[in-house]
Amino acid sequence: AIGEGSYDLSQTLKINDSIDVWGRYSSATSTFGVDVLDASGSRLIHLSFRPESHVTVMNSKLVGTWGTEIRCPYPEFSAEEQFKLTIECSEDYYTIYFNDEATCATFPYRAPLSSATAVSLWGASNGFTWDSVNVTFGT
Q1: d(CA 117, CA 127)
Q2: Where are the beta strands (DSSP E) in 40-128?
C-alpha cells in the first residue's frame, strides 16, 4: 500500500492521458477520494466517494471557492476487494471509470488541464488502503 498523500505528475496532463488508482475497500471506511491538484493547491477535480450517503460527488475548488457539485450513483464496492478508478482526460472533460466500466461521471474542465501538477489520494481509514497510482501519458 502507498497510503494517502500527494503524488507529483512527471509531466503536464493533456488530452488522452489517464490516471489510474487502485485501492482496497473496507465496509467500515468513511468518505474517500481522489483529487487532481494544481501548483497552488486548487482542486481541478475533486472525486469524493461517500459510503454513508451512497453517493459519488465531483466538484472543483479553484482559488479557494467550491464550484457546483455533480452527483452520481455510488459504485458497488466489495469489502476487502481491490478496485480501480480511472480518470481519463477527454476532449472537454474528465471521464471517470470504476473497474474499467464507465460510471455516469463526466466532469467538465473548469481550469486548464495543463495546470495539473499532482494527484492526491485521501480518506484511507478503518481498513481502507490505497495500493497504487499510475499516470499514462498519451501520444
Answers
A1: 29
A2: 43-50, 55-62, 65-66, 70-73, 82-89, 93-98, 101-108, 116-122
Half-sphere CA count of 116, side-chain side, radius 13 A: 31
Residue from 64, 66, 45, 65 nearest 56 by CA: 45
Instruction: Provide the CA 55 distance to its chain's centre, in angstroms.
Output: 14
Cβ contact 7:119 at 8 Å: yes
- Reading the chain (139 residues) residue by residue, the pLDDT tens digits are 788 899 999 999 999 999 999 999 998 888 999 999 999 999 999 999 999 899 999 999 999 999 999 999 889 898 889 999 999 999 999 999 999 988 778 999 999 999 999 999 999 788 899 999 999 998 6
Task: Indicate the pTM of the whole model.
Answer: 0.93
Among 92, 34, 42, 37, smallest CA distance to 67 is for: 42
